[in-house]
Automatic annotation (TrEMBL):
Biological source species: Aquipseudomonas guryensis
One GO MF term attached to the UniProt entry: transmembrane transporter activity
Keywords assigned by UniProt, alphabetized: Cell membrane, Membrane, Protein transport, Transmembrane, Transmembrane helix, Transport
GO terms classed as biological process: protein transport
InterPro entries: ExbD
Lineage: Bacteria, Pseudomonadati, Pseudomonadota, Gammaproteobacteria, Pseudomonadales
Descriptive protein name: Biopolymer transporter ExbD
């Protein structure tokens, strides 16, 4: 007896719907991705022959960076205006009224003296008592 074989069917995968799904997933990931742009000032610290290293504390620390042009940045967030009022407002908002937090002022070596004095004045008016100014250790002169 001779059995009749069924002709084989060509199995094809429909790629059009698969491509649609991939594009929708791609669109979803592009739309939901957040891009953060870190803004940091490049500060070349002045040198000091003597000084003490900062103590490690568990307290929240606030840092005011002052660029060579005199623009301010508080805890890595650049301030739009470089005046006393905006610096005081930013310090008050960041500290939430807690003036016992340590405040570090890191100014570029080429920063105008007035910008450092403005930062110190803002800290003084808000009642910050623990104030530090950042420097780098001076290299010993070679004989």
């Amino acid at each position: 007896m001779k059995f009749r074989r069924k002709p084989r069917e060509n199995v094809e995968i429909n790629l059009a719907s698969l491509i649609d799904v991939v594009f929708i997933l791609l669109l979803f990931f592009v739309v939901t991705t957040t891009f953060t742009r870190e803004t940091q000032l490049k500060v070349d610290l002045p040198e000091a022959a003597s000084g003490t290293p900062p103590e490690e504390t568990a307290l929240k620390q606030m840092e005011v960076l002052i660029s060579a042009e005199g623009s301010y940045s508080l805890n890595g967030q650049a301030l739009l205006k470089s005046d006393l009022e905006s610096l005081m407002a930013a310090l008050g908002k960041e500290s939430a009224g807690d003036n016992s937090l340590p405040l570090v002022i890191s100014a570029d070596a080429q920063t105008p003296h007035q910008a450092v004095i403005t930062a110190m004045d803002a800290a003084g008016k808000l009642g910050f008592a623990h104030l530090r100014i950042t420097t780098v250790e001076a290299e010993a002169a070679k004989p």
